[in-house]
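Researcher: First entry.
Model:
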Amino acid sequence: MSTDQPPPGSDEPRDRDSRDPFAKQPRANGSPYGDHGDHGDHTAGPEPYAGMPPLAHLGRRLIARIIDALLIGIPVGLVVTAIAGGYDPIEGSARSTTVTLVYVLVYFLYEGLMLTRDGQTVGKKAMKIRVAMLENGRPPAGQAGWLRAGVYALPEIVPCCGFLFWLINVLWCTWDRPYRQCLHDKAAKTLVVSAVP
């Protein structure tokens, strides 16, 4: 049985490896950044530099965030419990507000310092992903790293609407194309890529 279609070439989307739940997503025209051929359609923003690694899988990004949240949350919770005799995050008291404020500030400092140093937090290192500047693939040193950390962590300080912004921010990458950026990535002009070639 023959068909008139040529065999798939290197330009065809790659299939997902079913053995690895975090395998790279299929690529359009061999690129993890979508189809940016000569169609004149560059509405998604600047092209990443030519040697940019593949985009990080969303599952790896989520697990990295969970690792980082536990890494900061457990020590902060233990210290506050030892100093203040515990707290109930649901009751909305001044004590629970203080704990939230301390957690957010510690997380902001942790992420800002780690990202500006090498583009990875402990969670991102464990999941073999990193943050890269869209224009050159380098770690977000200086202002970009701090801006990214601030847009991610600091809105939670604002009562009620801070959590809503945080939720929209982290979910943004599920529908953003072609770079799967969250709002904190867009603010800092970064994206999350694989740290392994």
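Researcher: Second entry.
Model:
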Amino acid sequence: MSQEIWINLPVKDVEKSTAFFNEIGFHAVSVGNERAKLAIGQTTILLFPDAAFEKFTSSKTADTTHSAEVIFSISAESREEVEAFIQKVEFAGGSIFGKPSEIDGWMYGAGFADLDGHRWNLLYMDESKMPKS
């Protein structure tokens, strides 16, 4: 069974979020009057205003100032890409919750929150140093 998956993400201001994601190097475009489509590789994330998201899901959105509902992990090609990307995030107004660092001797990553507090991380994995099982 081959199917596509779309991730729906509530945001306070679709226009500002679209600009943020474009500024950090993703491809985001407006779709209709009140939403945007964010493409990252083969993944599609749809940005919806909080009110539309709440109506669609019949529930309140998570308060990202007090909790994390999910973390989006994105692969990087190198340590340098992680560092350059995190600088773009800071410049675009995102917040960094995990400075670039090495993890377990074979991963290098960093974590950030977008304008709405949704959490993301960028991770470079050096497979030549990956532990063998």
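Model: Note on the second entry: The beta strands are 6-11, 27-31, 35-40, 43-49, 71-75, 95-103, 107-113, 119-125.
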